[in-house]
């Protein structure tokens, strides 16, 4: 099935360009995968260096989101937060200033579901279609086109969105109306944060009890404690290669972004009167980390944070 999706992706390319706005750690490899699949890409980002890197691989770079909207009728956005999305879509040089009727707008940012619904209403007034399609999988999956997309929006436009998303991911899942993709992503990231903290605590305890960290990880990963944070993204330096813990926690998914996503979970839990005691505690831990110098490190640096805390 995945092979057939890639064939469809190639057959659908070499046609009209795709706009891409937001060329950060996730957006850049996603846009590159569109280029690899033959799609002409028209891109912009607030950081010129990010634009130059993509331009060197064949993309056309323009000055603003409005310029992208003028040249493309399929646009993907990958931005850090709700305020960024609001600015890129509705700001003075935003997409909706020059969007063409019938344009498909796919937002892969992780934001408040309410903001996704607001953007959908604003797009509809311009004759465009907005869908939320946040991702899971991290930078590695983005580079290898193995992301999971959680899609919310009108079902009639799902196949049109899937054509593009399949070029960047292994799984594209329709969740329901606009905002439900964000809901699924927020739930996933809350569990991810809780699992990472639990893995970091467990590994730290085992090390203090005299266990070799690689041995402990091996045991966990063949036992009932196994999880993504232990077997794919282990937070302990030296246990795995090719993960942020092996590179002083550089790259990956930043602590600031995890704190932001947990804040979204906290807000939606409050609004729906849903108890999330572990989610709330995880939010508190990552907020403290941001104030202690971990803001720009990968969220798996919670292991290092715990090690430093024990010395105080």
TrEMBL record:
6-phosphogluconate dehydrogenase NADP-binding domain span: 18-176
Active site annotation, chain numbering: 185
Biological process annotations from GO: L-valine catabolic process
UniProt-recorded Gene Ontology molecular function terms: 3-hydroxyisobutyrate dehydrogenase activity; NAD binding; NADP binding
Keywords: Branched-chain amino acid catabolism, Mitochondrion, NAD, Oxidoreductase, Transit peptide
Domain 3-hydroxyisobutyrate dehydrogenase-like NAD-binding: from-to ranges: 179-305
Pfam family, one: NAD_binding_2
Subcellular location: Mitochondrion
InterPro entries: 3-OH-isobutyrate_DH-rel_CS, 6-PGluconate_DH-like_C_sf, 6PGD_dom2, 6PGDH_NADP-bd, HIBADH, HIBADH-like_NADP-bd, HIBADH-related, NAD(P)-bd_dom_sf
Catalysed reaction equations from the record: 3-hydroxy-2-methylpropanoate + NAD(+) = 2-methyl-3-oxopropanoate + NADH + H(+)
The keyword Oxidoreductase is assigned to this record: yes
Pathway where it operates: Amino-acid degradation; L-valine degradation
EC number: 1.1.1.31
Top EC group: oxidoreductase
Main location: mitochondrion
Taxonomy, superkingdom: Eukaryota
GO CC annotations on file: mitochondrion
Entry-linked PROSITE patterns: 3_HYDROXYISOBUT_DH (PS00895)
Similarity section: Belongs to the HIBADH-related family. 3-hydroxyisobutyrate dehydrogenase subfamily.
Listed name of the protein: 3-hydroxyisobutyrate dehydrogenase
Protein encoded by which gene: hibadha
